[in-house]
Amino acid sequence: MGVRMNKNYFLLAGLVLSLIFLIGQGCTTGEAKGGVQGKPAKCGNNVCEAKESCSTCLADCGQCDSCSDTDGGLNYAVRGMTAGYKNGNEYVHTDYCVDGATITEYSCNGPLESSSSISCGAVNTTACIDGICK
Fold first, then answer.
1. 3, 18, 31, 77: which has the fewest Cβ within 10 Å?
2. 61, 89, 110 — which closes off a domain?
3. Does residue 86 sit in the same domain as residue 39?
4. How many CB atoms lie within 10 A of CB 69?
5. What is the C-alpha to C-alpha distance for residues 89 and 108, in angstroms, rounded to an integer?
6. CA 92 and chain centroid, separation
7. How many domains does the chain have?
8. Domain shared by 50 and 72, yes or no
9. Is the dihedral of CA 68, 69, 72, 75 positive or negative?
10. Whole domain around residue 87: which residue ranges?
11. Do 128 and 94 belong to one domain?
12. In 3-state terms, what secondary structure has residue 58?
Protein backbone atom coordinates (compact mmCIF):
# COMPACT_ATOMS: atom_id res chain seq x y z
CA MET A 1 0.00 0.00 0.00
CA GLY A 2 2.92 2.35 0.70
CA VAL A 3 4.11 2.02 -2.89
CA ARG A 4 0.66 2.91 -4.23
CA MET A 5 0.51 6.05 -2.04
CA ASN A 6 3.91 7.11 -3.33
CA LYS A 7 2.72 6.76 -6.94
CA ASN A 8 -0.40 8.80 -6.17
CA TYR A 9 1.69 11.43 -4.42
CA PHE A 10 4.03 11.76 -7.41
CA LEU A 11 1.09 11.85 -9.82
CA LEU A 12 -0.55 14.64 -7.81
CA ALA A 13 2.74 16.56 -7.51
CA GLY A 14 3.26 16.28 -11.27
CA LEU A 15 -0.23 17.62 -11.96
CA VAL A 16 0.29 20.55 -9.59
CA LEU A 17 3.62 21.44 -11.20
CA SER A 18 2.05 21.22 -14.68
CA LEU A 19 -0.75 23.54 -13.60
CA ILE A 20 1.72 26.05 -12.13
CA PHE A 21 3.70 25.96 -15.39
CA LEU A 22 0.59 26.56 -17.52
CA ILE A 23 -0.60 29.46 -15.35
CA GLY A 24 2.87 31.00 -15.58
CA GLN A 25 2.55 31.17 -19.35
CA GLY A 26 0.38 34.31 -19.08
CA CYS A 27 1.95 37.70 -19.63
CA THR A 28 1.49 41.25 -18.44
CA THR A 29 3.79 43.16 -20.77
CA GLY A 30 1.99 42.62 -24.06
CA GLU A 31 4.39 39.92 -25.27
CA ALA A 32 3.38 36.29 -25.70
CA LYS A 33 5.37 33.82 -23.63
CA GLY A 34 4.14 30.66 -25.31
CA GLY A 35 1.09 28.49 -25.13
CA VAL A 36 0.09 24.89 -24.76
CA GLN A 37 1.99 23.00 -27.43
CA GLY A 38 -0.23 21.62 -30.17
CA LYS A 39 -3.18 23.90 -29.33
CA PRO A 40 -3.86 27.13 -31.23
CA ALA A 41 -3.92 30.39 -29.30
CA LYS A 42 -7.42 31.42 -28.29
CA CYS A 43 -7.97 35.13 -27.79
CA GLY A 44 -10.19 35.84 -24.81
CA ASN A 45 -9.04 33.06 -22.46
CA ASN A 46 -7.09 35.44 -20.15
CA VAL A 47 -3.72 33.95 -21.16
CA CYS A 48 -1.36 35.75 -23.53
CA GLU A 49 -0.32 32.74 -25.60
CA ALA A 50 2.07 32.12 -28.49
CA LYS A 51 1.11 34.10 -31.60
CA GLU A 52 -0.83 36.61 -29.43
CA SER A 53 0.36 40.11 -28.61
CA CYS A 54 -1.09 43.39 -27.44
CA SER A 55 -1.80 44.26 -31.08
CA THR A 56 -3.57 40.99 -31.93
CA CYS A 57 -5.34 40.14 -28.65
CA LEU A 58 -5.98 43.07 -26.34
CA ALA A 59 -8.22 40.92 -24.10
CA ASP A 60 -5.38 38.55 -23.15
CA CYS A 61 -2.20 40.61 -23.55
CA GLY A 62 -3.30 44.08 -22.49
CA GLN A 63 -2.86 47.51 -24.03
CA CYS A 64 0.28 48.20 -26.09
CA ASP A 65 2.64 50.98 -25.03
CA SER A 66 1.63 54.25 -26.70
CA CYS A 67 2.17 57.99 -26.44
CA SER A 68 0.62 61.11 -27.97
CA ASP A 69 1.59 64.73 -27.34
CA THR A 70 -0.78 67.67 -27.90
CA ASP A 71 1.99 70.24 -28.45
CA GLY A 72 3.97 68.16 -30.93
CA GLY A 73 7.05 67.42 -28.81
CA LEU A 74 9.52 69.71 -27.07
CA ASN A 75 7.54 72.92 -27.45
CA TYR A 76 8.20 75.16 -24.44
CA ALA A 77 5.96 77.96 -25.74
CA VAL A 78 2.80 75.80 -25.63
CA ARG A 79 1.35 74.00 -22.62
CA GLY A 80 0.93 70.46 -23.85
CA MET A 81 -0.22 67.12 -22.56
CA THR A 82 1.00 63.57 -23.15
CA ALA A 83 -1.34 60.60 -22.86
CA GLY A 84 -1.08 56.90 -23.53
CA TYR A 85 -0.28 53.53 -22.01
CA LYS A 86 2.88 52.16 -20.41
CA ASN A 87 3.03 48.50 -19.36
CA GLY A 88 -0.76 48.35 -19.66
CA ASN A 89 -1.34 51.35 -17.38
CA GLU A 90 -2.95 54.52 -18.69
CA TYR A 91 -1.27 57.88 -18.00
CA VAL A 92 -1.87 61.57 -18.67
CA HIS A 93 0.74 64.26 -17.91
CA THR A 94 0.63 68.01 -18.50
CA ASP A 95 3.61 70.35 -18.90
CA TYR A 96 4.04 72.38 -15.71
CA CYS A 97 6.18 75.01 -14.02
CA VAL A 98 8.54 73.66 -11.38
CA ASP A 99 9.04 77.26 -10.23
CA GLY A 100 8.87 80.73 -11.80
CA ALA A 101 11.77 80.02 -14.16
CA THR A 102 11.82 76.22 -14.75
CA ILE A 103 9.48 74.06 -16.82
CA THR A 104 8.93 70.29 -16.93
CA GLU A 105 8.08 69.39 -20.51
CA TYR A 106 6.58 66.01 -21.46
CA SER A 107 7.09 64.57 -24.95
CA CYS A 108 6.97 61.28 -26.84
CA ASN A 109 9.82 59.18 -28.19
CA GLY A 110 7.91 56.73 -30.36
CA PRO A 111 5.48 54.84 -28.11
CA LEU A 112 7.34 55.93 -24.94
CA GLU A 113 6.88 59.08 -22.91
CA SER A 114 9.80 61.16 -21.66
CA SER A 115 10.12 64.33 -19.61
CA SER A 116 12.77 66.92 -18.94
CA SER A 117 13.04 69.99 -16.76
CA ILE A 118 14.91 73.02 -18.07
CA SER A 119 15.36 76.67 -17.25
CA CYS A 120 13.20 78.90 -19.41
CA GLY A 121 16.35 81.02 -19.89
CA ALA A 122 17.75 78.16 -22.00
CA VAL A 123 15.03 78.84 -24.59
CA ASN A 124 15.46 82.63 -24.54
CA THR A 125 12.52 83.38 -22.25
CA THR A 126 12.46 84.72 -18.72
CA ALA A 127 9.61 83.07 -16.85
CA CYS A 128 7.47 79.94 -16.58
CA ILE A 129 3.76 80.67 -16.29
CA ASP A 130 1.02 78.03 -16.48
CA GLY A 131 3.31 75.41 -18.03
CA ILE A 132 4.65 77.79 -20.69
CA CYS A 133 8.01 79.52 -21.00
CA LYS A 134 7.26 83.19 -21.77
1. 3
2. 61
3. no
4. 21
5. 16
6. 13
7. 2
8. no
9. negative
10. 66-133
11. yes
12. helix
